[in-house]
Amino acid sequence: MAVSGLSGIESMLQQMRTVVTKAETGNFAAGEVAGQPDGFAAELQRSIRRVTSAQNAASNQAKAFELGAPDISLNDVMVDMQKASLGFQTAVQVRNKLVAAYKEISSMAV
Question: Residue 28 above 50 pLDDT?
Fold first, then answer.
């Protein structure tokens, strides 16, 4: 029973190492990490893409406003910039929690 528990822990640690490595390098591929296309890594990848998309959209909107586009208001630009900033801050906090959890689990005595 202890041996099967150890192999489960080793498997989980390997999956966490893979996720951390890919999070640090940004090398996520759709459906990667332990063959789980709808797993945590895939959701993390989708979230990072949404944050990137929001940042790019806010930046483009700000540039258009600076160039004097008549259909873009300052209020919309500021709200979109704040949304992008909050999304980025949230993504950083999730990454920090993931790394902290990985470090805590990897330092546990088995």
Answer: yes
Reported as a single tens digit per residue, the pLDDT across 89-103 is: 999 998 899 889 888
Instruction: Count how many Cα atoms sit within 13 Å of the Cα of residue 72 in the half-sphere of its side chain.
Output: 17
Confidence of residue 44 (pLDDT cuts 50, 70, 90): confident
* Assessment of whether the complete model's pTM goes beyond 0.70: no
What one-character-per-residue DSSP string does 3-25 give? HHHHHHHHHHHHHHHHHHHHHHH
Distance (Å, rounded) from C-alpha 51 to C-alpha 25? 17
- Closest by alpha carbon to 65, among 75, 50, 53, 51? 75
Question: Within a 10 A sphere around the Cβ of 90, how many other Cβ atoms?
Answer: 12
**How many residues are present in the chain?**
110
Dihedral sign from CA coordinates of 40, 43, 49, 54: negative
